[in-house]
């Protein structure tokens, strides 16, 4: 499995596409947080990273499918999947190896953003940032990235076209992140099942963790979604 993980890691950085994706992610977050006037943290008047943690999921929604779109689609298209099948690996090892390889890239993208928290902490005159909420929000981002990665890998397992894999993965992540919340706000669900429909979406659980409260139910939700999509991916790999 770790051989597949290493292969996935090296494949992502084998071309300029991987480096460009990470640079664009860091550039976008930096511009939104310190340059653009509507979202500039320095004009808020208080030390808070709430803008960053509300913006980053939307950027990850497109970044993660970019990372995962080649995972299995390129294997199908290039014929290297046939070589994978000859190796002494179970389908689950192939899937989990590719998953962890892509997830490591997502973690690598998030690590430099810790500088933002350190910068705001150093620049604040009184108090500083809410450390508990910040740690909870970073845990939420990691879990969010982990779910998006599983969705992207799953989307890539359905096709040999990387563009289709990207579009499908991004759309599925969008629906999971905000789709249920949007449906719950429909008038027909008011004062009824709206709360339970909203609970099905990722945004509900991400916001809960971002408050600094780590609820085991939120953790179980994220793990459950990851396992579900990787199980679907494994089924597709077995069919191939």
Automatic annotation (TrEMBL):
One of its GO terms (molecular function) is ABC-type transporter activity. It is a multi-pass membrane protein. Pfam families: ABC2_membrane_3. Keywords: Cell membrane, Membrane, Transmembrane, Transmembrane helix. GO terms for cellular component: plasma membrane. It comes from the Bacteria. This is Gliding motility-associated ABC transporter permease subunit GldF. The chain crosses the membrane at residues 12-36, 42-64, 99-119, 131-155, 162-180, 219-238.
């Amino acid at each position: 499995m770790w051989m597949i993980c290493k292969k996935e890691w090296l494949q992502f950085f084998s071309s300029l596409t991987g480096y460009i994706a990470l640079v664009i992610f860091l550039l976008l977050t930096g511009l939104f947080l310190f340059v653009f006037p509507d979202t500039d943290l320095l004009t808020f008047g208080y030390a808070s990273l709430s803008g960053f943690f509300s913006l980053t999921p939307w950027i990850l929604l497109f970044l993660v499918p970019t990372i995962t779109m080649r995972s299995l689609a390129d294997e199908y298209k290039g014929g290297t999947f046939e070589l994978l099948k000859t190796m002494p690996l179970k389908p689950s090892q192939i899937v989990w190896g590719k998953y962890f390889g892509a997830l490591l890239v997502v973690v690598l993208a998030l690590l430099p953003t810790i500088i933002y928290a350190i910068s705001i902490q150093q620049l604040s005159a009184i108090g500083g940032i809410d450390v508990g909420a910040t740690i909870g929000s970073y845990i939420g981002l990691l879990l969010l990235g982990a779910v998006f990665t599983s969705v992207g890998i799953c989307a890539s397992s359905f096709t040999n076209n990387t563009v289709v894999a990207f579009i499908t993965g991004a759309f599925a992540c969008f629906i999971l992140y905000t789709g249920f919340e949007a449906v719950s706000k429909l008038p027909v669900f008011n004062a009824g099942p709206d709360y339970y429909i909203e609970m099905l979406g990722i945004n509900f659980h991400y916001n809960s963790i971002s408050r600094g409260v780590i609820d085991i139910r939120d953790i179980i939700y994220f793990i459950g979604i990851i396992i579900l999509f990787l199980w679907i991916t494994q089924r597709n790999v077995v069919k191939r």
